[in-house]
Amino acid sequence: MCCCFLSAGLDLLCRDVSVQSSEVIVGAQCGCAVLRGAHVFAPGVLSAPKFMKVGDVVSVFSDVEGRCTRGAKEFQGKKVFLGNGVCMMDRSEIFCTEGPIRGVAIRMDQAVYQSPSFDGVLPGELFLQNLPSVVVGHVLGPLPGERILDMCAAPGGKTTHIAALMGNQGVVVALEKIKSKVEKICQNADTLQLDCIKAYCYNSIHAVHSGKSQEPNTDVPPYPEECFDRVLLDAPCSGLGQRPNMGVSWSLTEVCSYPPLQRKLFTTAVRLLKKGGVLVYSTCTVTLAENEEQVAWALKTFPCLTLAPQVPHLGSQGMLGAALSRDQRQLLQRFRPELAWGGACDGHAPGNLLLKASTDTIGFFIAKFTKR
Length: 372
Fold this sequence. Notes:
CATH superfamily of the largest domain: Vaccinia Virus protein VP39
CATH topology of the largest domain: Rossmann fold
Strand content: 15-25%
Order of helices and strands: EEHEEEEHEEHEHEHEEHHEHEHEEEE
Number of strands: 18
Helix content: 10-25%
């Protein structure tokens, strides 16, 4: 296989950028993308100066509380400065009445953080992922010829990595319950020329055959029990480890809704895993309830499961507070965002914030189990 899966370390270099008199406000999601090296696309623009035209230099801010009205000429709410760029569209084009317009509205040429974009670079050969996401594939340890299940697969980064590690030999089943996301998985698989991936629009909670109707078919869901050599459950979660993040909008009720869902998916994963097989559970969040407490629950609920060592082990051990032993916590991997204060990074005064690429990642959690 020719595809290379790159780690997208948060190597963000703080720059001294002066704010311009003309301000453009973008949504929080667009703001996160800009911090990761993207330009500003028209759908992300919420507010722009009345007479903004192509060629104008503007400062771009993110509306972190979601209070800016689309089409506004100015905004006085809470906002975060992202950098400066050059307008590629007039205001009238961005907010045209004929419907949503696509394309780059602001070309960012002086971002606060120097985070280069790899989007579209060597398509079919390079695939960008966060470091912990790359680690997950290796911890799962797929081998050529095996039958592997990725239960919550969109957008397909881990799915395609698994297939590449197998040398495109075997079967990787990718399940996702939203059709458009399944199409994205297929698109990524086609781009990377990985034909061992079989993607289905299916709710993984119901992926085990009930046995009440016709004989189960191992080619399509639902599947008979114990038919996969390895299972990856990169579970839906509160996502509190994701970075950059312009603001968290989850309520306590929403955050607390994830553990029950994760346990339903985990139960299915155990039923579908062969004896002697490997199950990897991962999240991109930092809460004890979605991570270590889920591990403690799993070990108590499924006596057939045992925690296994992880290779590579680049993160720290699991947190206290979930009634896990020290030895059990050492078998877990928890990636914690770490900030380090360093000297001047651009010739200015010391004290600029540097994020270490070697240790700094998104917040992430990985647990590896074997089934007796």
